[in-house]
Amino acid sequence: MLRISNIYQRPVFAILRQTRANSSFIQQPKPLNTIDKRSPSQIANSSTLDIEVPQNKAPVKPKKKRPLLSDSKYEQQGYQLPSYAKNIGEWVIKLLMIDMDKVRAGPIAGSVYYAECKRQGLQFEDEPLSDTAYFFYEDIKLPKTFSQWFQITALHQWMLSVRMRAMPFKYGRNYQQKLVDRFFRDMQLRLADEMNVNSSRISDQYLKDYNSQLRGLVCSYDEAFATDDITLAQALWRNLFNAQKNVDITHLEAMVKYVRGQLYVLSKMSDRDFAFGKFKFVSPNELILKFTPEQEAEMLKRANEEYNFEINGKKPIPSEKSKLSYEN
């Protein structure tokens, strides 16, 4: 299998390693447009331009579909183990004092969060689209191809990586590596099972090409995150829209709002909530508004009730323990 290096740890954009305590990460004015109170889908559908729609048919009908997660029964069942295995596992964790914040990177980033990224643009011939996939393929008129699915998945993976880089370094790095490793492993299997690519040489070439694309889009999106919406629109145009000459500017506007909104929600999640896999991408049909001080206070109250064991009087089992902060 092609080994993918940790592309998210390069020092090109060291500014993005800041913690959430840095106001430049939390205080993002762009996703909270108080004038245009439309969802990304509403913005995309407001266009009056008559642009030719690309071929919107899946190129290959798969001989079999890959599961959203993996073939492992434990992963399919949410890592539910038999009671005796749980008891043994809890005893081992306590005895060896295992750092569960590191261990969670595999099942959370490599399973839960990868599945969340994968499903956003997932499409198969003659099957209905999810709300988010409909937004990408029908509202902003992207072609239904494997390469386009890669671009959509990579965009969502990048947004998660931004949040992972705001975690303590030794944990965030591990989460990022598990996410990208799972991405390329799943693509290798999808190329064989769904795209009928039976040659390992051709498959490896595809993966190398996609790896190069991923490196490029991470650089361009990082630059956009650290600058402004114009730079973000340019990055989306080059990557997601494949630098189309006749791209609809309204569709770019919708995508900028979609991305900034997701980043805002991610910035408001505590490290512990995020590390436990509680983030879900917000539907493009929904409008993201700025949290009020009262809402943020309520979120902290709920976190105290769940995680502050001195307050709620609960005794956590070894696998539930975490050193990550639950405060925003």
TrEMBL record:
Residues 138-281 form the Ubiquinol-cytochrome c chaperone domain. This is Ubiquinol-cytochrome c chaperone domain-containing protein. One of its GO terms (biological process) is mitochondrial respiratory chain complex III assembly. Belongs to the CBP3 family. GO terms for cellular component: mitochondrion. It comes from Wickerhamomyces ciferrii (strain ATCC 14091 / BCRC 22168 / CBS 111 / JCM 3599 / NBRC 0793 / NRRL Y-1031 F-60-10). It holds the Pfam family Ubiq_cyt_C_chap. InterPro entries: Ubiq_cyt_c_chap, Ubiqinol_cyt_c_chaperone_CPB3.
